Every structure is written in structure tokens, then in C-alpha cells.
Amino acid sequence: MSMIDTNNTFVTSDIAIAAYLQTHGYRLVDCKRLSDGRFYFEFDDPNNECRKKSVEFLSSECCQFDNNVRNLKKILYKS
Predict the structure, then answer these.
(1) Region 47-62 average pLDDT
(2) What is the value of pTM for the model shown?
(3) Exposed, middle or buried by CB within 10 Å (0-12, 13-18, 19+), for 50?
(4) 3-state helix, strand, coil in the chain (%, to 5)
(5) Average pLDDT along the chain
(6) Phi and psi for 43 in degrees, rounded to 5?
(7) CA angle, corner 39, sides to 1 and 79, nearest 5?
(8) Which H helix or E strand runs over 28?
């Protein structure tokens, strides 16, 4: 889950954090899949708030929901 702040933008490869940022009104500037298979989400972050918001995600119900979805997928793919 790499995150970088550069030139008033915030970049993450974590799709759940990207969805959380979008839900909270942050504007998605770029979205793509890199050649190594990782995701790339870039957000406009003029006030440098996205990093703090991404940490907030970790204690949110959205994170719990995301973890539950992952666990259910694991169960389904193992059976």
C-alpha cells in the first residue's frame, strides 16, 4: 500500500483507500493498472489532507467492510 504526496496530489495503490477518498469527495485525477500489475490511483490534494484521511480509513466501518469482503472471497475461492 504505497502512498506518496507530490505536487499537491496523493497516490495510492490500495483500491479500498481510493474508494474511501472518493466517497469523501476527493477528486480522482488518474487511475490505471501499472505494468507490474499494481493499481495506481492519483488524487487532487491541494490541502495535503489525503494522507490523514487514508489513516482515518483504517479505523472506519469502510475498512471493516472491505476486510469482510476479502474474507468472504477467500472462503469462496477455497471451496
Answers:
(1) 94
(2) 0.84
(3) buried
(4) 45, 25, 30
(5) 92
(6) -115, 145
(7) 85
(8) strand 28-33
Residue found by looking up cell 477455497 in the block: 78
Per-residue cell: 44: 487532487
Please tell me the total number of residues recorded for the chain in this structure: 79
Q: What angle do CA 33, 38, 42 make, to 5 degrees?
A: 65
Which domains can be identified in the chain, with CATH numbers? 3-78 (3.30.70)
Residue 42, C-beta contacts closer than 8 angstroms, at least 6 positions apart: 9, 10, 11, 28, 29, 30, 31
Task: Tell me the three cell numbers of residue 57.
Answer: 480509513
Residue 6 has a pLDDT of 65
pLDDT classification of 13: cutoffs 50, 70, 90: very high
